[in-house]
Amino acid sequence: MAHEQTDQRTETPPAAAPEGDSPEGGSPAADRAARLAVTVFPLLVVAAGALGLAFPSPFTGWAPAVPYLLGIVMFSMGLTLTLPDFTAVAKRPWAVAIGLVAHYVIMPGLGWLIATVLDLPPQLAAGVILVGCAPSGTASNVVTYLARGDVALSVSVATVSTLVAPLVTPPLTLLLADQFLHVDAGAMVTDILKTVLLPVLLGVLVRLAASRYVDKALRVLPWISAATIAVIVLTVVSGSAQLIMDAAALVFVAVILHNGLGLALGYASGKLARLGRPGSKAMAFEVGMQNSGLAASLATAHFSPAAALPAAVFSVWHNISGALVAAWMARSSRRTK
C-alpha cells in the first residue's frame, strides 16, 4: 500500500527509514527487523502452501473466509498509514503518477502476454492476468528499504495504487481476461471496495483517533498480516491441490516470468523517467510485486480456486525474489561508494 506490509504497508519497518532518496540512515535495529520480516514471511507462506498441498481436505471449506482474511490485512495496512504518507504524494505528483501508470500498464500487459504465449488454460490465464491487475504488493516497501531505494516514493506509489484499485483493477481484468473467462467487473468493484478500500480507510481513521495505542502495536502488525496471508495461501492451495500436481511447472514458469520481467521493466521505467537510482529501485519493486492476497481473493470469489493458484504461487515467489534482488542492489550500492 500503501503499501502483499508484508502489504503493509503492513510490513513496514521502512517507517524507520528517513524520507530521503535512500534509507541509508536507517537504524541497525530497523534494518534487522526488516530483514527478519522479509526472511520469515516467505518461509511462513511456503510452509502454509506445503501444508495445504499435503493435507488439503481439512482446509477445502475455508474459501468463503478469504475476503474477510484479506480485510484483516488491509485494515492492518491502514493502521500503518500516517498523514505524511499522503502529503508525500502531493509533494511528488509526477513521480507518483509515473509509478502508478507503470504499475497498471506493465504488469497487466505482461500477464496477458504470458498467458497468451504459454497458451495457459482459461482458469490459469485469468488468474495470471488478475495478479497483474492487482495493486502493489505487501512487502514492496520493505524490500525497497533493504535495497537502499527511495522508500518515500515506494510508500506513495503503493498507497495510491491500492486506493485506486476499485476503479482500475476490474476494468483492466475485464479488458484482458474476458476472452478467457467471463468477468463481472461490477461485482468485482464491489468486492474490492468491501475488502480493500473500506478496511484501509477504517484503519486510517483508527490510527488518527487512537494513534497512541496503535503506535504500541505497530511492530506486531506485520506478523499479523504475514500470518493472515499464509492462511489465505493455505486455503487457496488446498482448494487447488490436484491442479498444482498437474500444472505446477507451467504455473511456476508463468509466475517467475511475470515477476522477473516486472522487476526489470519497473527499474527501466524509473531510469527512463530519470528518477535516479534510488527511485528506479523503488519502481522495480512497486511494479514487480503485487497484492497477490487480493488477486487470490478475487479469483476465488469470481472464478474458481484453480484461478487463484497463480496468486498463491506469486505470493511466495515475489517475496523470495524481492529479498534476493534487494540484497543484490544493496551490495551494488556499497560497491559504488
TrEMBL record:
<keyword id="KW-1133">Transmembrane helix</keyword>
<feature type="compositionally biased region" description="Basic and acidic residues">
    <location>
        <begin position="1"/>
        <end position="10"/>
    </location>
</feature>
<feature type="transmembrane region" description="Helical">
    <location>
        <begin position="188"/>
        <end position="208"/>
    </location>
</feature>
<dbReference type="Pfam" id="PF01758">
    <property type="entry name" value="SBF"/>
</dbReference>
<feature type="transmembrane region" description="Helical">
    <location>
        <begin position="61"/>
        <end position="82"/>
    </location>
</feature>
<feature type="transmembrane region" description="Helical">
    <location>
        <begin position="36"/>
        <end position="55"/>
    </location>
</feature>
<feature type="transmembrane region" description="Helical">
    <location>
        <begin position="124"/>
        <end position="144"/>
    </location>
</feature>
<dbReference type="InterPro" id="IPR038770">
    <property type="entry name" value="Na+/solute_symporter_sf"/>
</dbReference>
<dbReference type="InterPro" id="IPR002657">
    <property type="entry name" value="BilAc:Na_symport/Acr3"/>
</dbReference>
<feature type="transmembrane region" description="Helical">
    <location>
        <begin position="247"/>
        <end position="270"/>
    </location>
</feature>
<keyword id="KW-0812">Transmembrane</keyword>
<feature type="region of interest" description="Disordered">
    <location>
        <begin position="1"/>
        <end position="29"/>
    </location>
</feature>
<dbReference type="InterPro" id="IPR004710">
    <property type="entry name" value="Bilac:Na_transpt"/>
</dbReference>
<feature type="transmembrane region" description="Helical">
    <location>
        <begin position="151"/>
        <end position="168"/>
    </location>
</feature>
<keyword id="KW-0472">Membrane</keyword>
<feature type="transmembrane region" description="Helical">
    <location>
        <begin position="220"/>
        <end position="241"/>
    </location>
</feature>
<feature type="transmembrane region" description="Helical">
    <location>
        <begin position="94"/>
        <end position="118"/>
    </location>
</feature>
<protein>
    <submittedName>
        <fullName>Bile acid:sodium symporter</fullName>
    </submittedName>
</protein>
